[in-house]
Amino acid sequence: MRALLLVLLCICSCNLQAWAQDTATPALHTRSCATTEYQEALQAQDPSLVLRQQQAMERAQEGSFKLSQSKAAWRNTIITIPVVFHVVYNTEAENIPDEQILSQLAILNADFRRQNPDTVNTPAYFRPFAADTQIEFCLASIDPNGDPTTGITRTQTDRASFETSRDDVKFTSRGGKDIWDSNQYLNIWVCRITGNTLGYSSFPGYNANIDGVVLLYSSVGAPPFNRSSGPYNQGRTATHEVGHWLGLRHIWGSACNNADGIEDTPNQQRDTGGCPTGIVTSCNNGPYGNMWQNYMDYTDDGCMNLFTNGQAALMQATLATARPSILSSLACTGRIRSDFEITNPTDTLVLVGTAVNFTDKSEGSRPTAWLWEFEGGTPATSTEQNPTVTYNTPGSYTVKLTVTNGIVSDTAEKLQYIEVTVSDLVVYPNPAAAYITIEQPARIEVRHIELVNSIGQTVLQQTVADRVVQLQVQHLPAGVYYLRLQSSNGMVIKKISVIR
């Protein structure tokens, strides 16, 4: 468990060279992992975090194994993840320009699709393992309210820097910027981070209000838009941290025990700093040694150039198991998706005469017009956003909603969505020849039925668990019978006539 905690909760924290535009940034050292502060703060707030992360990891690893058995399934499916960059700045140097952010987005797309120009630096012996992950990134064009956005927010703060252990940058009330719905967006905060930290990321299983990536402003993008000094000025911090957000762990482990859980990353004893040349071996991993070119090691930006097939499969599986809703996000499309629910009552099984409140739950671009169609309802149609409808006749009814913003539109139809029931116990037909139907009101269930003849003999009994029951009586002599019904609402007796 201790090893699991170290790997899962590790925040990539890196000492840096003094940046050209900001002499207050610390001097250069190698990257190093600073887990404890962030880990302890999160666990103190939420002790169940480790278990949730472990469960998310196990589901992703199971999904990764299935994907690796059928590579064609994921290799032909490109996933696009909507991204919002939250620039939180105190000085103008920290308020990096749009061009630098667009540069970072381009780097993410190139790295994850293996279209980065430095693929030529991948050694020949590792090239068979190098993967196009089939994951792409786009700047959000729709904000959580459905309004147009550039995919970049800018927030001026009085905070000189933000500590990793507090996550204040993710909260407007603490001088940062509140998260956009993490089910629909990858949130990336850009700010000055206290100490020597280049960036850090949440893993699958974190609470939704802190789910995302935080980057030091001077690590974002690449020259000429990033005018900071190297070696961490080529945008690979974001590639590394988004790898964590998609479930990847570091590729090394002191026990030489496949610490990242991925078969095609060689066992490696420790992180790699700087930019090695040639083969570096550890953990008896010859002849080719450590995969220090991997984005999940700690080498300089210019020396990272690949994800492996196993890492790609795990990231795909993480999206499918831990982040499935982002796969259907409309945040980059400009489209609209019609949807609705009832909010009062919350159950679609209702009594005759009940007023039902419908709520528009459409996603994507903000609708400006609504057309509701209510089979069996009063009114039968409505152009309100959240109408109220009354159903006066028992039955099952379809509801349809068409939404539009004048440019795009969409329709959602839910068949037999509303089931309207009688307001009191009904037994029909009466008299009956072949069968009788017993119908209780909404949310009441018949549990036991007895049919008793005129001299008190039980001629039929049945245990049931439904609200509506059909009882066969064609084999009974004509006459008067008494139907005893034990339901979740108590005992009811009805007089029934059977005819021939």
UniProtKB/TrEMBL annotation:
SUPFAM superfamilies: Metalloproteases ('zincins'), catalytic domain, PKD domain
Coiled coil start-end: none
Keyword Disulfide bond part of the UniProt annotation: yes
Keywords: Disulfide bond, Hydrolase, Metal-binding, Metalloprotease, Protease, Signal, Zinc
One biological process term in Gene Ontology: proteolysis
InterPro entries: Ig-like_fold, MetalloPept_cat_dom_sf, Peptidase_M43, PKD/Chitinase_dom, PKD_dom, PKD_dom_sf, Secre_tail
Residue span, PKD domain: 352-425
Family statement: Belongs to the peptidase M43B family.
Name of the featured protein: PKD domain-containing protein
